[in-house]
Amino acid sequence: MDSGLLTAMLAATIVAGTPLIIVALGQLIAEKSGVLNLGAEGMMAMGAIAGFAITHHTGNPWLGVLAGMLAGILMSFLFAVVVLTLMGNQVASGLALSILGVGLSAFIGKPYESEILKTVAPWRIPMLADIPVLGVLFNQQSLVYFSWLLVAGIIWFLYRSRQGLILRAVGESPTSAHSIGYHVIRIRYMATLFGGAMAGIGGSFLSVFYTPLWVEGMVSGRGWIAIALVVFATWRPFRVLVGAYLFGGVMIAQLFVQGSGMDINIPSQFLSALPYLATIIVLVIISRDQNTVRLNAPVSLGQAFRPEA
Most CB contacts within 10 A, which of 21, 54, 141, 293? Predict the structure, then answer.
């Protein structure tokens, strides 16, 4: 394979995997506390339109990222009120949140469909960016580096900090955590809001950095892939990184094949469906190993908790 093509595919894979990493890590933290939020697609969509709109009006992409993060937080707060305070069903509420976010973002985004943002230049690290092929790792958007730091930070938080231990304890046995004085609902609120913030950032990355424009449906199932990615990674942060680039690579590979003009008798619709097909196949394979899933999945995942008076 030509080194230029390999470099281009590697660069595209990294960028395509970045929103998956950010969103999946946010959901991993929420799920570690015992909260299952299936609304990532809707939160990403709201983050994408909020980030695009603010960047369009201010010209500042970082204000756009902040707006996307706030939009994700507001959406996740709505979900948290329903499932943590009002004790609503987490699965049904998450699905409703996803539908709400996708529909509301489409409505808000109508005036912006013909607008295009100025491309944000990548952050190039001198000397390291000059390395053949691998130098592409050091000539990326700032949020790519943020995603790597986020992986390292969450690994440290979960396995090296007291707060991470408390979070995992809440996810494993909220009743026991409550009995020794930890405020389970408050901790779950914070974890859920963090998940929403990361979903909003992931959405704003799509509309501000990845493809600096807004079109309805641009999230295109990435929120669902991010949720599946947490299961694929068996709730381990570093595996999220690996899985995100795996799925990102599948996305990019099918685009390169379709754009290369190769004479292959494969329908383009099948190629477009490959990332989602790969997600289903991986989840089926993982589901066969129930011991691994049970060992790493938070015991109270998806279960409501009502503190005793």
Answer: 21
